[in-house]
Amino acid sequence: MRYDGIIFDLDGVICSTDEYHYLAWKKLAEKLDAKDFTRKDNERQRGVSRMESLEVVLEKVDKKFTEEEKAALATEKNGYYREMLAKMSEKDLTDEVKDTLDAIKAAGIKIAIGSSSKNAKFILSRIGLADYFDAISDGENITRTKPDPQVFTMAAEFLGLPPSRCLVVEDAEAGIRAGVAGGFDTAAIGSATKCSFANYRLSTFSDLKAIVL
Ligand code: BG6
Ligand code: MG
C-alpha cells in the first residue's frame, strides 16, 4: 500500500461546512459594518484558528477592539455557525465521500480527522460519522493551528503511524503547508489545488481511490 493512514481535514473536505464558516463570518462582518467582506477574504480564513479568522474580518472595520471584545465577537460568530451546524444531518455527507471513505477503510488503511475546529466532533455527529474514524485530532487537542503541523503530527501519533506513511487531504493552503512542514505527503482539493507544492491535486473526492488503493 502506498499509505498506511490518511488524515482528512474536515471543513471543505469531508463536508461543506466551509460555506457555513463563510456565511457566519459574513453575518458578523455586516453587523460590524465591515467594508466589503468577500469570499476572497474568506479564503484566508481556511484552516486557521477562529481568532485568526476574526482578525481577517476586523481588518475591514474602522474600530479597535479589546481582547475581551474580540473574544465576544468570536463567540457570537460561533453561535451563528452552530445554528447552521445544528440543521445538518446525514444528508450533508455526500454518497461520493461516504463511498470513498468506505473503500479506503475496507482496504485496511487507517483514517483520521485533522481539523483546526473545536466543532469537529459536533459536525461528525451531525453527519453520522461520530464513531467512524480511527482517530480525531482537532481544535480541542492542539495549541497551534495550521500552517503549524501539530494537528497532523498528533493525528499520526493517535494512529500509531509515522508521517512518512500518511497522506494529508486538505482544501486550505495553510493545511497543505502544515502537511509539508510535518513531513506528510499532501493531496489538495478545492481551493488548495492552486498550491504547486501539493503532491496530488484532486478534481473530485473520489479521485483519492486511484491514488491510495
Ligand atoms: C477550520 C476552518 O477547519 O477550523 C477555519 O477552515 C476555522 O476557517 C477553524 O477558523 C476553527 O473552527 P471553529 O469551528 O473552531 O471555529
Ligand atoms: Mg478545510
The kinds of small molecule bound in this structure are: 6-O-phosphono-beta-D-glucopyranose, magnesium ion
Which word captures the global form? globular
> Helical region count?
9
Average pLDDT taken over every residue:
97
Largest sheet: 6 strands, parallel
Determine the structural class based on helices, strands and strand pairing. alpha/beta
Enumerate the spans where pLDDT stays under 50 for 5 or more consecutive residues: none
**Helix fraction by DSSP (H/I, runs of at least 4):** 40-55%
Radius of gyration: 17 Å
Helix and strand string, N-terminal first?
A: EHHHHHEHEHEHEEH
Tell me the number of strands. Answer: 6
Q: In what order do the strands lie side by side in the largest sheet?
A: 3-2-1-4-5-6
How does this model look, in words?
With 213 residues, the chain is α/β, with parallel strands linked by helices. The chain contains nine helices and six strands. The protein has a six-stranded parallel beta sheet with strand order 3-2-1-4-5-6, with helices on both faces. Helix 1 packs across helix 3 and helix 1 (17-31) packs across helix 4. The structure holds 6-O-phosphono-beta-D-glucopyranose and magnesium ion. 6-O-phosphono-beta-D-glucopyranose (BG6) binds at residues 10-11, 21, 45-50, 53, 78, 115-119, 139, 172. Magnesium ion binds at residues 9, 11-13, 18, 46-47, 171-172.
